[in-house]
Amino acid sequence: MTAPPGSPTISPITIITPVRRPWSWWLRLTWPGSDRSAFIKAPILRLSFIHAAHWGLFDRIPATGSDPLPTPYILFQSNFDGRAFEYAEAFALEMPWRIRGLWAGAHGFPGPNPPNRFVRYVLSHAVEGPFHYYARYPTGTVRTVRSALALKESFTRFERKAAGLDADKFAEAWREFLTREQRNL
Amino acid sequence: MTQGGINPAGLAVLLPVLGGQEQTLGARLEALPDGDESPFATLSSTHFARLVLVPGLRDAAERVVPGVPALLFFSAEFDLPVDGYLEALCALLPPEVDEIFELCGGYPGAASPPRFKRWLLDHRVPAGFSIQGNPGATAGEVVESLALRDRIIEFAVRTQGLEPEALLEAWRAQDWRNGA
After folding, report:
1. Is A103 on the interface with B (CB under 8 A)?
2. How much is the pLDDT for A3?
3. Which residue of A136, A144, A153 is the best one to mutate when testing the B interface, meaning the one whose CB has the most B CBs within 10 A?
4. Of A16, A34, A140, which is closest to B54 when you measure between CB atoms?
């Protein structure tokens, strides 16, 4: 099912998962390198449905001076295109080892295969409390935004080129522009 | 710091909710207007923002962890350095900020931006691994580009099949920046 034109396509998800303490140490050790690694991020970016997502860790309630929690937690939050079910499923199908790299040490983590078990795991840890969500461009998918940004650059060049053309030359240049930019329209 | 475009670290904070205030906070969150009426729409550098009530934490055996209060999770993606964003939050939305955050422990009030910033950042959960779909674009650039794309598509459809003279006339009559 596709959303009707003009309806929001961006959704938020917030997931809090308890993890084994040694796993939290491993993540703290490896995240700085992973976060700078184009190799690790490229396949996720190629999926083109994440606007912004972050993984973080906490093992006590920040700034309360409380004792450490019985177990650390991964706090995952994402702003993505589509529905949560499809989002989690795409992760499991397309990036199984990256999923393991993030959640392998989480309590109850079933692994990325079969995907429906991973989807159930993710959705069962999604925070369901009352919420407020704001997206500045709620109908712009990641792909649409990329296309629009590329098109704007190209259009600015076209505008400069088109100034002063006579009608025949302008019509030809416009047709060329539309053909060249078809994938961004 | 940002170098044109979304702040790569974003902001994520977990704030303990005052005992007995969970329902009031939940009701206030749900009463905030959506879309262009959202308070966050006032902050033009905001790409995304969320406020979520986390009723409690569950342990490895899926039991609720005793002694942990309900939490308010606040996160935002924006173009400014985090200090600047929080100052803008205090300056432009003091009533809304007070209405939501006053139900959290230790809230110092939006009237004191330095204390508000310190309080919020003390509760930060730093991002360890992040993904940005379109990292170089500001929120304003994205909105403007999407609107321009819509206008180009509309113009292309409307002028399809026109003779060159009529096409050029339509082109000159089009206000590309404002959509008229």
Report:
1. no
2. 42
3. A136
4. A16
Torsion of CA A153, A155, A157, A160, to 10 degrees: -140
Greatest Cα pair distance in chain A? 76
Check whether the bond before A114 is cis (ω within 30° of 0): yes
Contact B46 A136 (CB under 8 A): yes
Phi, psi of A116 (to 5 degrees): -65, -30
Closest C-alpha among A68, A50, A54 to residue B126 = A54
Containing structural domain, residue B112 = 11-122
The per-residue pLDDT for range B138-160, each reduced to its tens digit, is: 999 999 999 999 999 999 999 99
Q: Are residues A68 and A32 in the same domain?
A: yes
> Are the beta carbons of A140 and B146 separated by less than 8 Å?
yes
ipTM for the predicted complex comes to 0.93
Q: In this predicted model, what pLDDT tens digit does every residue of A60-106 receive, in sequence order?
A: 988 777 778 999 999 999 999 999 989 899 888 988 888 999 999 99
Q: What is d(CA A125, CA A119) in angstroms, rounded to the nearest whole number?
A: 10
Task: Count structural domains, chain B.
Answer: 2
A42 is a domain residue: yes
* Strand-pair partners of A53: A78, B131
**Bridge partners of B77?**
B48
How far is the C-alpha of A149 from the C-alpha of B5, rounded, in Å? 12
B16/A64 CB distance under 8 A: yes
Count the neighbouring beta carbons within 10 Å of the beta carbon of residue A177: 20
The residue-averaged pLDDT of B5-12 equals 92
Residue A15's beta-bridge partner residues?
Answer: A76, A126
Q: Do A148 and B167 touch (CB under 8 A)?
A: no
The reply to whether A120 and A165 lie within a common domain is: no
pTM of the full structure: 0.92
Do both A77 and A166 map to the same domain?
A: no
Assigned domain for B51 exists: yes
A180 CB within 8 Å of a chain B CB: no
